[in-house]
Design goal:
239 residues, alpha/beta, Rossmann fold, seven-stranded parallel beta sheet, single chain
Length: 239
C-alpha cells in the first residue's frame, strides 16, 4: 500500500480505527473523515506513529452534500490522488417497528444509505472514472444480508447499500472501478453500547478482523476481485 491514498469515512469508529491502523502500518497515505473532531485529531497522530507517511483528518458529516464535496476538494488540493474509499460511517437504532420513530428511521437512512451514496458519487465521478481505476469498500454488515428482529429500519438502510452498490458497479464497469461488499457480524464495536439489547460481545468478531479482510481484498492480484466477503463468528455460520 506504499503511497496509495485511502479515504476512510467513520474513521473514529471501531472498524474505521482498526482499518486506519492496518493500512498506516502498510505505508498508505490516509484521509480520515468523521464528525468526532477531537477523536479524529488523536487518531491522526496515532496513524503517524503506526507508519503512515501522510495522514489528513477532515471533519465531515457524510449526510451533508456540501461537506462531502468539501472533503473531496481538500483531498484533491492537498494530495491530488485517491485510490481507495472505505465507507465506514454508520448508525444503528435497534427497536421493534412499533417503537421506531420516523426521526430515527430517517437518520439511519441518511447516514447509512445517503452518506454512502454521496461519498461514492464524489469518488466515482470526480476521481475514479477519470483515472479508470479505483477501489470502493461498502460495509452493509450481516444485517444487509439477513434480517433480524428489532432491526427493520437498520436492515432497510443496509439492504439499500447492497442494492445501490451492485447497481453502481454496473454503471462503473467500463471504468475498471472495483467494488467490495463486506458482510461482517456480529462485530464487537461501540455500536452495541446503546443498542438496548443483551449480546455476548466476547463471542463477536473484533474490528481487527474486519481490517484484515479489507487488507486481504486489497492484496488480491488482478483480475481477481473479492466482490462480497462474509465473515461471522463461528456461532453464526450459514445464517
Amino acid at each position: 500500500m506504499d503511497g496509495k491514498v485511502v479515504l476512510i469515512t467513520g474513521a473514529t469508529g471501531g472498524i474505521g480505527t482498526a482499518v486506519a491502523q492496518k493500512l498506516a502500518a502498510s505505508g498508505a497515505r490516509l484521509v480520515l473523515a468523521s464528525r468526532q473532531t477531537t477523536v479524529l485529531e488523536s487518531l491522526t497522530a496515532r496513524c503517524h506513529e503506526w507508519g503512515s507517511p501522510e495522514t489528513l483528518s477532515i471533519p465531515t458529516d457524510v449526510t451533508d452534500r456540501l461537506q462531502v464535496e468539501s472533503l473531496f476538494e481538500q483531498v484533491y488540493q492537498k494530495l491530488g490522488q485517491l485510490d481507495v474509499v472505505i465507507n465506514g460511517a454508520g448508525l444503528g437504532v435497534l427497536k421493534p417497528i412499533q417503537q421506531l420513530s420516523e426521526v430515527e428511521f430517517d437518520r439511519m437512512v441518511a447516514v447509512n444509505l445517503k452518506g454512502t451514496f454521496l461519498v461514492c458519487q464524489q469518488a466515482v465521478a470526480r476521481w475514479m472514472q477519470l483515472k479508470a481505476s479505483g477501489r470502493v469498500f461498502n460495509i452493509p454488515g450481516i444485517l444487509g444480508q439477513h434480517p433480524m428482529g428489532n432491526a427493520s429500519g437498520y436492515c432497510a438502510s443496509k439492504y439499500g447499500v447492497v442494492g445501490f452498490t451492485k447497481a453502481m458497479a454496473l454503471d462503473c464497469k467500463r471504468f475498471d472501478i472495483k467494488f467490495t461488499l463486506l458482510y461482517l457480524g456480529g462485530l464487537d464495536t461501540p455500536f452495541w453500547e446503546n443498542a438496548g439489547m443483551k449480546v455476548q460481545r466476547d463471542k463477536m468478531l473484533k474490528p481487527e478482523q474486519a481490517a484484515d479482510a479489507i487488507y486481504f481484498a486489497l492484496q488480491v492480484p488482478a483480475p481477481g476481485v473479492p466482490s462480497e466477503i462474509v465473515i461471522q463468528p463461528d456461532s453464526h455460520l450459514f445464517l
